[in-house]
Design goal:
418 residues; alpha+beta; six-stranded antiparallel β-barrel; 16 helices; 16 strands
């Protein structure tokens, strides 16, 4: 009796038929070198397998990359220093595989092997931060870093009902408590908190020192099922007037229905409103803190460019006052700033670019007035200078105009304060 001819192949059988590693077949199928499974989930017809070029399948693999190495590559692509964004972990690579952004080539599904070329292509994508926020949930410590606060502050966020777990993972700490279930949170929901809870004093939360009571501790938790917003708060989320939101509601049939209140003072479910605002591009998920860029000119015309994240710029009302700029910095940059400004007359700023204001320049006497380390470990640096020395920066360097007296305050959001 003759041997039956196999008509259907799973990935292992297809790899065996071609005498190539299973990982090579997986990559060939995932990259389009061979057709996708055409005989059911994870199964190929005999015709597809026999038509495959075994040498091309074998050559395309080029050696899998471990999840840990892939995570480091993606972390590098985010740019250093990282601020308000955790490092990419090996488990995050597993989430990216499950999201279809990377092809699983082998190893533990939680920490998979992947193709180095595909990792490099993902690392080059401009929307990498967005993809990580969308597909990779965060543990409590990672979520606290994503929000830019201490762990105690993030625990308060959870207690208040501002965010809820979207899953969990079991971690075996072996000699430190044994098996523990750790909740996971949506990175998008965490990053959106300052946008969708605009009445919270987030600047105070960011700057809370170690050991201090959380500024969130005095707030009352959200009543289950009644996390509602008025039109005025929706307007604050977007940075528009109440009338604009009323117009959206009137003109869009898919605007969320009333959850409570009256037609005069309608209330809406916050989650439904946020989903609608995202879907209609009224708000976006912050991919990181806004930043200010300044070019500082010190003694001997030494020039260095610095970045301050989460800038808070307050311009004085008149030339007799003092301008103040605060922002998060690295230790190295803070030391370099202090060294440049340590002279009797301080330093000059050739160009300061910050959200919410035109490029500025300062002729001199810029100095570091405070270095503050928050409880979350970030270093906040505050600079000050006489307002009378402030001017507009020229487009290609230098100063176009001095003694600019128009004043206002710019906060972390980048919008002038009222």
């Amino acid at each position: 009796m003759g041997r039956s001819v196999r008509e259907l192949y799973d990935e292992g059988q297809a790899a065996g038929r071609l005498r190539v590693p299973v990982a090579a077949w997986r990559w060939a199928a995932g990259s389009g070198l061979v057709p996708a499974a055409n005989a059911g989930p994870g199964r190929w017809s005999r015709a597809v397998v026999e038509a495959a070029d075994a040498e091309a399948v074998r050559a395309a693999l080029r050696g899998p990359m471990g999840a840990g190495v892939a995570a480091e590559r993606l972390t590098e692509a985010l740019g250093l220093p990282l601020r308000c964004r955790p490092r990419v972990t090996a488990s995050a690579v597993g989430h990216l595989v499950r999201a279809g952004l990377l092809v699983y080539l082998g190893g533990a599904p939680e920490f998979p092997d992947v193709h180095p070329d595909q990792v490099d292509a993902l690392a080059r994508r401009r929307d990498l931060p967005v993809l990580l926020d969308r597909h990779v949930p965060l543990g409590p410590d990672q979520a606290a870093r994503r929000l830019g606060v201490r762990r105690v502050d993030f625990d308060a966020v959870v207690r208040l009902g501002f965010v809820s777990p979207v899953g969990s993972v079991t971690v075996d700490y072996r000699h430190h408590g044994g098996v523990t279930t750790v909740p996971l949170y949506s990175a998008e929901a965490v990053a959106l908190l300052p946008v969708v809870r605009p009445w919270v004093d987030w600047r105070a939360v960011y700057a809370a020192p170690a050991g201090a009571r959380s500024p969130l501790a005095a707030l009352a938790p959200v009543v289950a099922g009644r996390d509602w917003v008025l039109l005025a708060e929706v307007a604050r989320m977007v940075g528009v007037g109440r009338a604009a939101v009323q117009s959206w509601r009137r003109r869009n049939a898919d605007f969320p229905a009333l959850a409570g209140g009256t037609e005069v003072h309608p209330q809406f479910d916050r989650a439904a409103v946020v989903a609608w605002l995202l879907a209609h591009d009224k708000i976006g998920v912050p991919i990181g803190m806004p930043s200010a860029s300044l070019t500082v000119v010190g003694p001997g015309r030494r020039t260095i460019r610095f970045r301050l994240d989460g800038p808070h710029l307050v311009l004085a009302e008149d030339a007799e006052g003092e301008d103040v700029l605060a922002g998060w910095s690295t230790d190295e940059d803070a030391d370099a700033l202090a060294a440049l400004m340590a002279g009797e007359f301080g330093a000059a700023v050739g160009r300061l670019t910050a959200p919410g204001t035109v490029p500025l320049a300062v002729r001199g006497r810029v100095r570091v007035v405070e270095r503050f380390r928050s409880g979350s470990g970030g270093l906040r640096v505050t600079l000050a200078w006489p307002a009378g020395l402030r001017g507009s920066a020229a487009r290609h360097g230098g100063v176009a105009h001095h003694a600019v007296l128009h004043a206002g305050a710019v906060g972390e959001s980048g919008a002038p304060s009222s």
